[in-house]
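User: Hey, quick favor. My workstation is busy. Could you predict this chain's structure for me?
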Amino acid sequence: MARLHPTKNDISANRRQAVVDLLQARLSDALDMSAQTKQAHWNVKGPSFIALHELFDKIYTDVATSVDDIAERIVALGGTAKGTIAVTAKQSNLPPYPLDIADGLAHCQAMATALSSFGKQVRAAIDDADELGDKDTADLFTGISRGVDKNLWFVEAHIQAKK
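Assistant: No problem, here it is.
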């Protein structure tokens, strides 16, 4: 466990450490989510190419904002945000993204799986942060959760269309 940096934040060091650990776990998931989103963005093909290419880019922008917000909360609490590829690969809880797909609907299925998994982790983090008495971190995760759910809706709309 890394030592916290000194801060005048009135949350006890033990609670701050627990919240930092929680945030770090979700930071790894968010970084993986951003990479998976770019994988889809770069490699999507098919009749809905431009719509999906732009949708995946918008989702990436949303996730990148979440990454930054989570990392900055870690540092605000006296922690060190660990955002390297090696840490992300080791700590992410998301399922691996399939690298052998090109079809737009296949990417929608994979993105829906990733977003659903990320959303589940973030919703659990809301409760965990609340139990740790950190309403600010719970609120941060609540905002992220709303965004993930909205993006999941956008992606699933492509899958749910009647044939």
